[in-house]
Structures are given as structure tokens and as C-alpha cells.
Amino acid sequence: MTVVFTVLAALSGMERKYSRDRIFKGQESARKHGNPVAGTWTIKATVRASGSDQVTVETTVTIRR
Predict the structure, then answer these.
(1) Half-sphere exposure (CA, 13 Å, Cβ side) for 34?
(2) 36 CB contacts (<8 Å, ≥6 apart)?
(3) DSSP code at position 9
């Protein structure tokens, strides 16, 4: 029975490392492509109805991990 738990513990450790590596690669890819990662970000949006009529809205958002 001890062997079974030892094998399961080893597999669990490997899975944790694999998950951590995939998360790191995903965050790295998101940064490379300009996608926001966890943190506080400011978003600005400008809507123009005509050449002289426009509105800009700015807000701060928090993206969680």
C-alpha cells in the first residue's frame, strides 16, 4: 500500500511542475502578444460621433490571476 501512495505522490509532484510550467508559458505568450496579465490596468475608449463631437472614457480595472 505504501508503494501506491509513493507513486501517487510522485505523480502529483510531476503534475504540479507541469501545471506551473504551462501557466508560465501562457503568461509569457500573453505578454508577447500584448494581452494583459494579472494586475491593475487603465482602459481608455474614445467614441467619435462626428468630426468635432467625441467622448473619451477612462476607467481602471483589476485583472485577477
Answers:
(1) 0
(2) 30, 63
(3) H
Give me the long-range contacts of 49-52 (CB less than 8 A, separation at least 24): none
Pairing of strands 54-63, 39-48: antiparallel
Which helix (H) or strand (E) segment is 54 a member of?
strand 54-63
Q: Residue 4 carries which DSSP code?
A: H
Q: Are 54 and 46 in contact (CB under 8 A)?
A: yes
For residue range 3-59, list pLDDT tens digits in order: 888 888 888 888 888 888 888 898 888 888 887 778 888 999 999 888 788 899 999
